[in-house]
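Hi all, posting the design record for the shared folder.

TITLE: backbone redesign
STEP: 1 of 1
STRUCTURE INPUT:
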């Protein structure tokens, strides 16, 4: 086959012959010299970019005209050509780099198909080329070169001779350190983002939730906002299909985590995908809850005022009974409670279950909280005393073992990660209406919270799994 005309940018009638190869270069390229000839390889190693371009033109013509031959000859030519392209891909002159990309594509597609290049040789060619191509995506001076490198990596991954090998995605998701240049970090993230559209996660694509999330998690630590933004886009896109798996690679969604901007933005995007209320709606709901709590406090204060009035009546009844020698029906404890000052009554009343005892000094209340209060329990993981109603929240956010738990989207209970899938698959938990119900983490029932003291009555009298409940008054 006749040689094609060399591109005009490499044509120069006054171009002098290239200098001889140095001993070091000759030793490095000896196998390529044996196959392609000393003149071509010398040009490829020349300091003059026109010579390097001419070497690629010659190589392109050799590849196009190569006849069917024994596998050993084809393999030798393949490896020699890869050696030359590996050298010229590092070129800083755009024209040389551009032609190197074209010759590499010719090698990996047309030549490989025509001459049935083996899988091992294909892997050899891709492994030699990918690190150089990836480094070129961080080019800061020649933006044309950077753009071409990014586009070619995506094209390379989709070539029918390369796609089944899944090598390009595996190279692209190798994590990089936070000290990598911002331009290179951004380009690498953008390549992964584009490749995930063309090659979604599935068997044989080269992408897995694990390797993509490990890559994105490291990119999220980069100091450049541009790098972090693309990493967030990758994680968010992945979350739409693999939400539970994605969360395992991130810190628990707590107030502490949301104080960091990078996690706050991610968790807010997760909330939007999950259809959760906005932070503003959550804030309003919290304000309404606080308002309800204030109203309950006011109601308690009214009750205490009423008790004080009753204490005066009881005192009068006691005096009358003493005179008439007719005993009253009020117990000594009740008389003492109603006759005591309001502040003292409060000090000797459990703030959780409302029980009053004269023995409730500071130490007495501590014992009550630790052993008997039916609205409290001891966390089996950190040994803290917590409210039963807040136990799931404690496990998810406060407990030292919180990293081992995940919230069930159905019942809101904190479930251990190692049994979470079984919990969901079992399908026994009932969906919780978060506006009107509370979920009991002990007996796993949903309690109607629209009635006054509904939760308190459940914990004290009805919950069969509460070892502290008042069994004598079980309803």
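Okay, here is what came back for every position:
SEQUENCE:
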């Amino acid at each position: 086959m006749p040689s094609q005309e060399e591109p005009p940018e490499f044509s120069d009638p006054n171009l002098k012959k290239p200098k001889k190869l140095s001993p070091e270069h000759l030793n490095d390229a000896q196998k390529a010299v044996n196959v392609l000839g000393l003149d071509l390889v010398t040009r490829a190693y020349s300091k003059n970019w026109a010579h390097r371009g001419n070497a690629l033109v010659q190589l392109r013509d050799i590849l196009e005209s190569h006849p069917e031959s024994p596998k050993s000859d084809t393999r030798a030519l393949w490896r020699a050509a890869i050696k030359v392209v590996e050298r010229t891909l590092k070129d800083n002159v755009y024209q040389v780099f551009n032609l190197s990309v074209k010759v590499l594509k010719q090698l990996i597609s047309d030549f490989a198909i025509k001459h049935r290049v083996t899988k091992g040789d294909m892997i050899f060619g891709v492994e030699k080329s990918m690190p150089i191509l990836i480094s070129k995506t961080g080019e800061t001076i020649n933006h044309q070169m950077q753009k071409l490198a990014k586009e070619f990596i995506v094209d390379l991954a989709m070539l029918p001779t390369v796609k089944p090998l899944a090598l390009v995605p595996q190279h692209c998701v190798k994590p990089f350190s936070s000290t990598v240049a911002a331009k290179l970090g951004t380009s690498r993230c953008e390549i992964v983002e584009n490749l995930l559209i063309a090659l979604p996660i599935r068997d044989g694509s080269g992408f897995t939730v694990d390797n993509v999330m490990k890559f994105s998690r490291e990119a999220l630590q980069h100091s450049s906002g541009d790098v972090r933004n693309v990493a967030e886009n990758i994680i968010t896109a992945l979350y739409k299909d693999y939400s539970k798996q994605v969360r395992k690679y991130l810190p628990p969604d707590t107030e502490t985590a949301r104080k960091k901007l990078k996690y706050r933005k991610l968790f807010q995007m997760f909330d939007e995908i999950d259809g959760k209320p906005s932070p503003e709606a959550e804030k309003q709901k919290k304000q309404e809850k606080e308002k309800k709590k204030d109203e309950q406090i006011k109601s308690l204060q009214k009750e205490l005022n009423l008790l004080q009035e009753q204490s005066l009546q009881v005192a009068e009844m006691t005096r009358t009974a003493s005179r008439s020698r007719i005993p009253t029906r009020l117990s000594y404890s009740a008389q003492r409670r109603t006759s005591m000052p309001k502040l003292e009554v409060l000090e000797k009343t459990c703030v959780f279950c409302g029980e009053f005892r004269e023995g409730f000094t500071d130490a007495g209340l501590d014992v009550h909280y630790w052993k008997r209060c039916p609205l409290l329990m001891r966390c089996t993981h950190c040994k803290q005393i917590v409210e039963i109603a807040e136990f799931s929240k404690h496990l998810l956010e406060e407990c030292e073992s919180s990293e081992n738990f995940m919230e069930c989207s159905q019942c809101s209970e904190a479930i251990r990660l190692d049994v979470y899938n079984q919990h969901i698959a079992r399908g026994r938990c009932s969906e919780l209406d978060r506006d009107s119900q509370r979920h009991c983490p002990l007996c796993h029932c949903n309690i109607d919270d629209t009635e006054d003291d509904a939760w308190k009555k459940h914990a004290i009298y009805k919950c069969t799994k509460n070892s502290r409940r008042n069994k004598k008054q079980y309803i």
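COMMENT: Residues 109 and 159 are 7 Å apart (CA to CA).
Let me know if anyone wants the other runs.
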